[in-house]
Design a protein that fits this description.
Layout lengths: L4 H13 L3 H13 L3 H12 L5 H18 L2 H9 L1 H4 L3
């Protein structure tokens, strides 16, 4: 709980390299809930290659959308509009 999303991503990558796709998916889903976009991309790749279901991918997308909804603010939008390269949060 309250762990580092990059660490969860790395654990997910390690598990996938070992062939443990169920465990990999669990780590990536946790990282996606924390807003880690690279884990969302990994879940999509796992779905593409048949290691995750469509429901798994949809759950990851929904979790990511919920995260974006939680962090959305006028200040973030203004910063992103000023310099999308530095301040884009999605």
């Amino acid at each position: 709980m309250k762990g580092d999303v990059r660490a969860r991503y790395n654990l997910g990558v390690d598990e996938a390299c070992e062939g443990n796709f169920d465990r990999s998916l669990k780590h990536h889903i946790i990282a996606v809930r924390g807003g880690f976009t690279k884990s969302l991309e990994r879940v999509k790749a796992m779905y593409t290659y048949g290691h995750a279901t469509k429901d798994d991918y949809m759950a990851a997308l929904q979790s990511y959308q919920e995260y974006l909804g939680e962090i959305k603010s006028p200040q973030r939008d203004k910063a992103a509009a000023a310099n999308e390269t530095l301040y884009r949060y999605y």
